[in-house]
Design brief:
The chain is α+β, with helices and mostly antiparallel strands. It contains four helices and five strands; from the N terminus they run E-H-H-E-E-E-H-E-H. It is 27% helix and 25% strand. It has a five-stranded mixed sheet. The radius of gyration is 14 Å and the shape is globular.
Length: 136
């Protein structure tokens, strides 16, 4: 599949909400905040197929040592075709010399991230205050 991976692409509310809604992410319920968060990320990467937004990922970083990948999504009909892997390779290439690359993965995504070199962080445990309901 010939997908364009674009660094710091312009994204629009309708296409972002479509992508998040189809993935059942509760962030879609806060469209203004979601768009501001994505647009103000340290890095935003999109995947487009024939102009359609089919994948997105963002990074939050101090710019030197630590990067956190809060969101990576691919439209369900395009999942399993290597798009997410290509997006994450782009992110990991940009931050390859950072001391720490972090993310939180739910049960369905753990195998995917392990295939990209991520591993459990010792005896640490993810903790959060979360207003969504898709990760109970």
């Amino acid at each position: 599949m010939d997908v364009d991976i674009i660094l710091n692409d312009t994204v629009y509310e309708k296409e972002v909400i479509h992508l998040y809604s189809l993935n059942q992410w509760s962030a879609a319920e806060k469209p203004k905040e979601l768009l501001l968060a994505l647009r103000n990320s340290h890095t935003l990467i999109t995947a487009r197929f024939k102009g359609e937004l089919v994948g997105i990922a963002n990074a939050i970083s101090d710019g030197y040592l630590v990067v956190y990948y809060p969101h990576i999504l691919v439209l369900p009909k395009y999942q399993g075709q290597g798009i997410g892997k290509e997006i994450m390779h782009c992110m990991q290439n940009k931050y390859k010399n950072f001391h720490q690359q972090m993310l939180t993965a739910d049960e369905k995504a753990i195998h995917f991230y392990k295939s990209l070199g991520f591993k459990s962080a010792g005896n640490t445990q993810s903790m959060w205050i979360y207003q969504g309901n898709e990760h109970s």
